[in-house]
Amino acid sequence: MSQKEKNKTPPELDDQLEEAAAKEAAEEPAEAEAGATDPLMDELEALKDQAARQEEKYLRLAAEYDNFRKRSAKEKDAAFGNGVSFAVEKLLGVLDTLALAANAQTEDESYKKGVLMTLDKAGAAFSAMGVEEIEAQDKPFDPELHAAVMQQQAPEGVESGTVVQVLQKGYTYNGKVIRHAAVAVAQ
Asked: Where are the alpha helices (DSSP H) in the chain?
C-alpha cells in the first residue's frame, strides 16, 4: 500500500470525527458561558444574602424583645415588692403596739382576748404576704439581720456575741430585711 492510501480514512471514521468536532465546538461556547457571570445568578445570590441579613435582623430583634420583656417583668416585680415593703414597714408600728397591748396587764379579759385575736390576725396577714419575723433570741449576732443597741454581761453558759434580749422584733419580706431586729448582745 502506498502512503496516500494509508492516510485515507474510511467514510464511517470521517463521520465520527466530524461529530466529535461538532460536539467540541458546541461545548466550547457553553464553557465560555459558564465562566461568565449570569445576571440571574448574580441577582439570586444577592437576594439570598439579603434574606440571610433580614433573618439575622429578625432573630436579633426577637432576642432583644424577649430580653426587654424579661427585664420589664423583673422591674415590675421589684416595684411591687418595694411597695409592699414600704407598706409593711409602716404597719409594723401598729403590730408593735398591738403586741404591747397584748402583754399589758388588764382586768378585762374580753379586751385582752380581742387584742390577742387582732394580733393573731395581723400576724397571719403578714405571713400570707411573705413577711416573716427574724429569729434573734439566743442566736449568734448577725449584722445583716440584727441591730445591736446595747451589750450586756453574758449570763453563765452563753457565748460572747449571742443575742440575749430582743428589744424590737425584726422582719423580712421574701428574704429582704424590712426592719432589723434591735437586740442586746452578750459581751
From this structure: 3-7, 11-35, 39-103, 109-129
